[in-house]
Every structure is written in C-alpha cells, then in structure tokens.
Amino acid sequence: MGQADSAPAGDIPSSPSVASPAAPVSLFALWRVFFWIGLFSFGGGLMPWIHREVVTARGWMKNEQFLVGVALSQILPGVNSTNMAVYVGQRSRGLAGATVAVVAMLTGPFLVMLLAALSYRIVLGVPWLHAAMAGVAAAAIGMLLRFAYPPCRRSSPASCRSWSHWRHSSPSAF
Amino acid sequence: MRDDSFSSLLPALFKVLAPLSLASVGGATAIYAPLQFAAVDSHQWISGREFLDLFAICRFLPGPSSLLGAMIAWKVAGLAGALVAMVALYLPSSALAYGVGMVWDRHRGKPWHTALERGVAPVAAGLVVAGVFALFQLSGGDVLTGSVIVGVAAVLTWRKKLHPFPLLIAGAVVFETAHLAGYLA
C-alpha cells in the first residue's frame, strides 16, 4: 500500500486531474469503496486500506492531500474513519460525495449491528466468532504498522522510496 | 418503558448521543463512560448487565465502537431509535469535518497553506504510529496479537500490492487455529 514508486504506470495518469481535485469520481465508486472498507473494519486501523483504494489504486487524490486528511480526521472529534470518508468524499464529489462516502461506510456495520442486536444472546455464546474477529483486528493493526514503518528492501535500494507516502519529494509519486 | 413515553424517547436519545459525537476525540473509548451514565444511571433505558452485554458484542462487530450507542437505541426504541442514533452519533462530527475541509480548501495555494500541508506529513505519521500502539494495547497486547501484527506488516513488505481481504482472513484463521488449539479463551 502506498508504494507510489512501484505503482503501475496507469495508476495515476499524469494528467491535469492531479491539479484539479474535480477528477470525475462516480458516486457509485465512492459508495463501493467505502461500503467494503466499512464492512470489514474491525478494531480500527483503516487508513492503510483507504490509502490503498483512494491513492494507490484509483488516484483520486495526491499523497499530500491524503495525509492532510489523515491528520485532520485524527485531530477532529468523531470517528477517524468516518471523518476520513467525509474528507475523501468531499474532495471527490463535494457534499454529495461526502454524504455517500460516510453513509456507505456506516451501512454495512449498521446492518450487521441490527442482525447482532436481534440475536446477540446467541452471538455472545459463540466463542469461535470472538477469536476470528480478534484475528481480523490484529491483521488490520499489522496493516497500519506497515503503513507507518515502510522499511527498505534489500533487493532494491530504490524501494526505499516506498516511504514516499510520508514524503512529498518523490517525483514518481505524482 | 417503550409505550407511553415513546414519542419523547427519540428526542431523548438524540440529546444523549449527539454531544457524544463531538466528545470522541481520538477514538470511541471516551464515550463509554458518559454513555453508560446516560443509558443506565440517568435514563435507566437498560440495566448495567445489558450495557455490558451490548458492549461485549459491539467489540466484535465491524464499524466504529460508538455503534454501541445505536445498539442501545435499537434496544430501547427499535429501528426508529437506531436510525435516530446513527444521525446523532455521526452527523455532528461529519458536519464539522466537512466544514473544516471547506475552510482548508479555501486557503489552497497560499504559502502558509502549502507549508502546513507539507509539514503535516510527519504529524500524520506520528499519529498513525501512536494508533498502532493504542490499538495493540486495546486488543489485549498479547503475544499472538503481536505476532499477527508483525506478520501482516512483514507480508505487506514482501507483497506490497496484496489486497487486505486475504490478510484479514488469514488473521482470523490464525486466531481461530489458536482458539481451537486451546491458546485462546
């Protein structure tokens, strides 16, 4: 995630779309990205996944912009991930985008919560489910660790650039 | 509890939950105490035992931990209550984030704005590192969790483009195996 240097050529087209944040991002695409991230968000640590979808895979925004969002959404009150959804949605499609992104992110968890509320005595009695969810949470924290500490690869010193999502000087990043 | 006072229940839920939307700086853990006070002690919507049950189940559901507020609302006021709770819990903080984002954009291109944008990267990195430690502690801080964290980070170093799904499922499988082998309660 976030290895802008090793991103495929078609990743972020070096077009004016980088300069103008009004690159056409469909509301459906926003919905799809944030719905899945929301549905699989166990125990926080979503920034790497959002970064992967929004910056690395789709090029909806620059690293710089994304990192401002990371900082803002953690500093501001509220849940980091929903704040980040608002930030990404706003930059992609304004008010409609922000609304779609944050609603998409909460829809999956809300529906699961309703199911669980209907059957919580049963669910509480399923210990293997607890273990599975704890495992998913641990893996998500691992993704976060990789996002924060990207080490260099011995095989290619150039991949030291993999830290470029924390820097702004990497010319290949944008 | 649900019949005669139902019409006043939805506004009451909103009044309790909306301030919590803005109270949770840096995670939902800050809202547990005021939520418990409001739901159990003050309004007596649910018992302390029920609160703990719902708290326990919420920890294993996807989404923000503040969904506990919506779950309590579902318990006391059904689907309408849950929907009111979602609006109360996430609209204020989202509106604030939107407003700050707008102000931020308005100053785009000014030198101080550019400098701040560049300088914020290390801050964001620090906040993420702090988040890793906070989440590790919250998750119990045990050896198995630590191993999965390091393992996932290592795999991502090796296979940078890997989709999160296989990693999350692998984490579940590791914990499941440990559970079946008797290492996890």
Tell me about this structure.
The complex is a heterodimer of chains A (174) and B (185). Chain A is an all-alpha fold. Chain A has one domain. Chain A has helices at residues 27-39, 47-57, 63-75, 80-118, 120-124, 127-148. In chain A, helix 1 (27-39) packs across helix 4 and helix 3 packs across helix 4 (80-118). The longest helix of chain A is centred in the middle third of the chain and has 39 residues, at 80-118. Chain A starts with 26 loop residues before the first helix and ends in a 26-residue tail after the last helix. In chain A, 56% of the residues are buried. By secondary structure, chain B is mostly helical. Chain B folds into two domains: 6-106, no CATH class; 111-180, no CATH class. Chain B has seven helices and no strands. The chains are: A mainly alpha (174), B mainly alpha (185). The interface between A and B is large, with 83 and 86 residues.
List keywords for this structure.
heterodimer, A: 174 residues, mainly alpha, disordered C terminus, B: 185 residues, flat
DSSP helix fraction of chain B: over 70%
Q: In angstroms, what is the radius of gyration of chain B?
A: 21 Å
Q: Based on CA inertia axes, which overall geometry of chain A fits? A: globular
Average predicted local confidence, pLDDT of chain A? 75
Helical stretch tally of chain B:
7
Largest sheet: number of strands, sense, barrel closure of chain A: none
What is the helical fraction of chain A, as a range of percent? 55-70%
* Biggest sheet details of chain B: none
**What do the pLDDT scores of chain B average to?**
84
Oligomer: heterodimer
Straight-line N-to-C gap of chain B: 37 Å
